[in-house]
Amino acid sequence: MGLSTLIVRASDALPMAASVDDEQTEQALAEHKQQAKLIFRRITANSESRCSIESGAYTLHYLIADNVVYLTIADKSYPRKLAFSYLDELSKEFSQTYGPKVETIRKPYAFVGFDTFMSKTARLYSDSRTAGAAAGSSMDRLNDDLQDVTRIMTKNMEELLWRGDSLDRMSHLSTSLRSESEKYRKAARSINVNAMIRQYAPVAAIAFILIILLWWRFT
């Protein structure tokens, strides 16, 4: 099932809880955890609320609910229905336990104790794939309750990385264009002022001399 799970605040990607992974899993998923951080930074108010992102032998599934992102890294062969059912259970329990506190925390991993529930739920979903007949009937009941995931967006990590880089470049280009545009506006104003000075300076000088002569004559 989900080999690793991360929970962050959607608005600023502040990590709030994470599964405790063994050293082997930590090493195997080091690159994918970095990709997860990238996904968190890419999430906006317009992002899909449920999405599966394929990356090599793994898939990163995430769910957004109440300004919280729940993401799990699973084997590519692991059923999406189970992955999102798992995330749904996490979101319901997390919201019920910590919901009112989500917007107030300032330090990372403030809800580290949630790992106990994550570990227990992860074992349940892992066992449901390999257990015998008794667990199989439980699996059947679980499948009956699972939502339809055919409409959940599926993306490729390379596509996401390229799109993100493109957006970054476009943002940088837009900033540069605004800066250059401001420079041109200032230069244009300076040119116009200089042109007006050259055009009206002689007239102003003559008018000033006349005023001085008239003042001197009548005083």
TrEMBL record:
<keyword id="KW-0653">Protein transport</keyword>
<keyword id="KW-1133">Transmembrane helix</keyword>
<keyword id="KW-0175">Coiled coil</keyword>
<dbReference type="Pfam" id="PF13774">
    <property type="entry name" value="Longin"/>
</dbReference>
<feature type="domain" description="V-SNARE coiled-coil homology">
    <location>
        <begin position="138"/>
        <end position="198"/>
    </location>
</feature>
<keyword id="KW-0813">Transport</keyword>
<feature type="transmembrane region" description="Helical">
    <location>
        <begin position="200"/>
        <end position="218"/>
    </location>
</feature>
<protein>
    <recommendedName>
        <fullName>Protein transport protein SEC22</fullName>
    </recommendedName>
</protein>
<comment type="similarity">
    <text>Belongs to the synaptobrevin family.</text>
</comment>
<keyword id="KW-0333">Golgi apparatus</keyword>
<dbReference type="Pfam" id="PF00957">
    <property type="entry name" value="Synaptobrevin"/>
</dbReference>
<keyword id="KW-0931">ER-Golgi transport</keyword>
<dbReference type="InterPro" id="IPR044565">
    <property type="entry name" value="Sec22"/>
</dbReference>
<dbReference type="GO" id="GO:0000139">
    <property type="term" value="C:Golgi membrane"/>
</dbReference>
<dbReference type="GO" id="GO:0005789">
    <property type="term" value="C:endoplasmic reticulum membrane"/>
</dbReference>
<dbReference type="InterPro" id="IPR042855">
    <property type="entry name" value="V_SNARE_CC"/>
</dbReference>
<keyword id="KW-0256">Endoplasmic reticulum</keyword>
<dbReference type="GO" id="GO:0015031">
    <property type="term" value="P:protein transport"/>
</dbReference>
<dbReference type="GO" id="GO:0005484">
    <property type="term" value="F:SNAP receptor activity"/>
</dbReference>
<keyword id="KW-0472">Membrane</keyword>
<keyword id="KW-0812">Transmembrane</keyword>
<dbReference type="InterPro" id="IPR011012">
    <property type="entry name" value="Longin-like_dom_sf"/>
</dbReference>
<dbReference type="InterPro" id="IPR010908">
    <property type="entry name" value="Longin_dom"/>
</dbReference>
<dbReference type="GO" id="GO:0006890">
    <property type="term" value="P:retrograde vesicle-mediated transport, Golgi to endoplasmic reticulum"/>
</dbReference>
<dbReference type="GO" id="GO:0006888">
    <property type="term" value="P:endoplasmic reticulum to Golgi vesicle-mediated transport"/>
</dbReference>
<feature type="domain" description="Longin">
    <location>
        <begin position="6"/>
        <end position="118"/>
    </location>
</feature>
